[in-house]
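Students often ask why we bother predicting the structure of a whole assembly rather than each chain alone. The short answer is interfaces. A chain on its own may look different once its partners are present, and contacts between molecules only exist in the joint model. In this exercise we take four input lines together and write out one structure for the complete complex. Read the inputs first and try to guess which parts will touch.
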Amino acid sequence: MAKLMPPDPQVEFPFRISRFSHVEYGVRDLNASRKFYVDTMGLVVTHEDEGCIRLRALEERGHHCLRLVQADRADVRAIGFKVPDDSELDRAREFFEQRSLETAWCEPAFMERALRVRDPWGVPLEFYARMDRLPSLHQQYRLYRGVKPLRIDHANLFVPDVDGSTSFYGSMGFRLTEYTEDAETGRKWASWMHRKGNVHDIAFTNGRGPRLHHSAFWISNPLHIIEFLDLISTTGYLASIERGPGRHGISNAFFLYVIDPDGHRIELYSSDYQTVDPEHEPIKWDIDDPARQTLWGAPAPRSWFNEGSVFAGTEPVEPVYAGTPIVAP
Amino acid sequence: MAKLMPPDPQVEFPFRISRFSHVEYGVRDLNASRKFYVDTMGLVVTHEDEGCIRLRALEERGHHCLRLVQADRADVRAIGFKVPDDSELDRAREFFEQRSLETAWCEPAFMERALRVRDPWGVPLEFYARMDRLPSLHQQYRLYRGVKPLRIDHANLFVPDVDGSTSFYGSMGFRLTEYTEDAETGRKWASWMHRKGNVHDIAFTNGRGPRLHHSAFWISNPLHIIEFLDLISTTGYLASIERGPGRHGISNAFFLYVIDPDGHRIELYSSDYQTVDPEHEPIKWDIDDPARQTLWGAPAPRSWFNEGSVFAGTEPVEPVYAGTPIVAP
Amino acid sequence: MAKLMPPDPQVEFPFRISRFSHVEYGVRDLNASRKFYVDTMGLVVTHEDEGCIRLRALEERGHHCLRLVQADRADVRAIGFKVPDDSELDRAREFFEQRSLETAWCEPAFMERALRVRDPWGVPLEFYARMDRLPSLHQQYRLYRGVKPLRIDHANLFVPDVDGSTSFYGSMGFRLTEYTEDAETGRKWASWMHRKGNVHDIAFTNGRGPRLHHSAFWISNPLHIIEFLDLISTTGYLASIERGPGRHGISNAFFLYVIDPDGHRIELYSSDYQTVDPEHEPIKWDIDDPARQTLWGAPAPRSWFNEGSVFAGTEPVEPVYAGTPIVAP
Amino acid sequence: MAKLMPPDPQVEFPFRISRFSHVEYGVRDLNASRKFYVDTMGLVVTHEDEGCIRLRALEERGHHCLRLVQADRADVRAIGFKVPDDSELDRAREFFEQRSLETAWCEPAFMERALRVRDPWGVPLEFYARMDRLPSLHQQYRLYRGVKPLRIDHANLFVPDVDGSTSFYGSMGFRLTEYTEDAETGRKWASWMHRKGNVHDIAFTNGRGPRLHHSAFWISNPLHIIEFLDLISTTGYLASIERGPGRHGISNAFFLYVIDPDGHRIELYSSDYQTVDPEHEPIKWDIDDPARQTLWGAPAPRSWFNEGSVFAGTEPVEPVYAGTPIVAP
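Now the answer. The structure tokens for the assembled complex follow.
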């Protein structure tokens, strides 16, 4: 069972991050991706050209939360975070430069300047303050289709050193909400961290990495996920169902994992809880507690533990800590 | 995929059955059973004495749909069917006598006379016309707890000869709604048959039998099943979750299977469809179509294919037709 | 509050009716009707020509449940009932002839012969045994749109003599499930009667009549009704929302009433309960009990008590029994 | 319809508020209040003595979100806000002192020091940084009862000068998300403001005030609200249903308003959306747009526009701006 640990000490953060914002995926067939993300899942196209489709979810006002870029192989090119205003970008640059991480300014379409940097393990990050704002769609109910995705919620990464990643992102101001600990060694097996006031903006799991385990969309009602399962299992996407539906012990989310045409994993995520209090105590799970993965007890398939999307330009490495192997059925 | 076959020919039925009505279970610990069925699932006790608890679901007016009887071993003592009026019982008796099946009159508590008989494979059946009627509870919403079971729906049996059972119950007036056929031999692997106008009152699956695979309760909303999973996984019943939640291809039901403290399997069953037209065409499923079991593709555990409750006084036998083995993961 | 009354005596019925089956509406603009019933509500077109659109709901196998016929004025041309086989039609004809009601055979498209007759108050009835059967759609989830209507459920009529109509339809085999009585006079103010085993196939309310108060479609989940409200209130159909959402005391249904482009009222109906036992005791409601209309207390608008669709060829008359006026807010 | 207006300019805020946190109600009968809030709504008692019941919702870790205090008359004694750490309280005190608003330190039970102050119109505010933290309950699903309230969400006040209140709370760092404007005069009729990243922590409506219009609890699923309506309408609380269920245009919330035994109004609130981006554009509604109140068109009852709870020690005054009267049906 979950136990409470003392809250994080309050620290001054070097720059402020508002929230996880977007992902850029390399995909091999834009038509197949559009069919999956737009026609089936129900995201909305906000811009499309020969090489890239940009999408937003139904309550988002920012221009896009997904960029699907025509590529020779499936990969992930950026994990995007929004900062509240432009001056934070300079503070962010300083933070990374102090840590000898190379930064670069760029101007992605539909954004003002963005800061690109790789974290110490090679994860490509993109920070920005201003993206084009679009009129609200959330009361145009004729647009609600598929799984009715309301907003992007978080990214979950395989990393070779969960303690290291947790500490590094903690120094950027991410707060720990839940974590899995190996009782024997005291090392973290996985951690969930947030900026925006719910369970997570980013999470880390021990494994060959860095690789993107999944990005997640927030769904307002478990019934939308059930109806989405009915839809995809009768429209040619049966094989894209990887795991679920179920309830995570960690995060309390009602979840479904699906695999896009390029093998990228998407979580459809409902529930979770509010964590805006800075003293919000992280919940500690023991690695041997099966309820942490699935409150209802059904094990995840082996693929869920092993497969992930590589980051362009970064070769994954084996975890520094082999740890207790998690054995899927 | 499912295919249509010509409708059943209209025949004159020897006696009329209204619906599947109740089950009598032998249980080894009435307290444990009450905790499961009443405190957890949410059925309502209508009578209780030292040896027996009688229960009804929330919209039922008949006195009981479950009888839990203190016993030395877990078994099933009766599968109960209601006939519309008393005179049908005499016609039923004639039907069984003509087939050399021994009948007996009895007077179960809270009922007028009932006819007891075993089907040709030894399944103990109980037919009755009048059971005590109780005031309606369905708008006493403070009683809605657990999975909010509204009514008993059907019984599903392992039988050694599905074609034989289907034909025998068909001669009693049960109508086929769906079935699984082994394309190679043309034999039925499983069949679903109804009297009350939905997908089934009784169903048969090929296997060592007769044994009761499960009895099922009708739940009005998939959300109640999701919330029941949350409840039982955090109140000591995690191990009772056997399979689900999922969507059956056959019957289109949103389902969950749980195991009671004696190993009896209960299905919590939502959705299905109306079948009151006598020419309603049965849907044929191929035994190799994975969607028939779970539209969403997740396989059932091995226990679901192998385990069932024995009928008191009847020794199960191996199926006459070994057929295509269904291999669970 | 509701009270139990002794069950209906068992009687031999002159012919058997399976269920309420369809309605034929006269509409003034087929395009507007298609936009409402197909594009918005989510019914499926099964045949369309210049003068008529035929529709079915998502789990129906019969060819149609609605016929929308181009007309000069909005009216209702037939209330359709299915009988289980052709021979019942001859028995039905005899029943009506004995009561000096003129009958006629006709052959509506997509049906074998049908019997047309007006009830003693002029309601045009259409009885048939065989309509074209179509392949099942209920697992083609890409077709689920709008309010996701699964099947037609019942018709509700204003009639000038509820006691008379209840008695007449009772003699046809309809069974009473709930009714409203004026305690002072002992007369029925409204009644609900069924053939198919749920709360009703037909219902009668005291008022200028006969007129059709509404026809109803069965919706499997209250959430679909909530989402339909979001949809229609943002796609130009706000004014079509007449009453609801709410819970009826009578029938226990979660309901919404909408008005089609011709003023025909449609109920979207979820919940209700099983009534297949012939001794099922009708629930009696007192006319002064506000919970009978809306369990949650919100009153219906005046239009709901006053407005209905006329039957072609029948002039409505004032009720024989003025009774307690029901005053809307 | 809603229109976008330019975003709030970024300003430096004088102190940081995390979120709306709690309300203290004066109630005349603690037993009646407990029956309503605990036994019926499903809040959890965290402390109770002769004069006060303290309650929390199911996912809250802070000690309480409601204090029900035995009193001679029904009133409201404090609107509570949490600040992220203790030093903010000194900055808050400075903010109010600079505006000549009298402040006082107090030590409410289960809290460290709190700052009490009245806003310029007499609303009693309570700011604190640390309240006792309790173990999480959100996965103890046996505790989920009634409407399954997850957390307190916001307070809504009648105020005599909406522009004034909006400006004052804006200077405290609350950000505008939606507002109603009288097109003729350009004055705000109502405004919604947040700190925690959803639609609101506090809202203001033009009217005799200050008075508390309602406090609101966040409910995760509209079906919980529907089932709560069934429960309260059959357990003696029918008269406590004031308005709903419905969908607000403003905030997009699925709502129900109920009245507690002392006349305090509680909103059960589901949906809304994320607003963490500081440039999130407020949505402007015209006062003549009926969709802003109820997307589905049903008007609110007159009581909803007129009745509210007085704040102890503050006499409400008429609005400075009579404005366009909003006429309820």
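Check your guess against this: Chain D touches chain B through 13 residues (CB under 8 Å).
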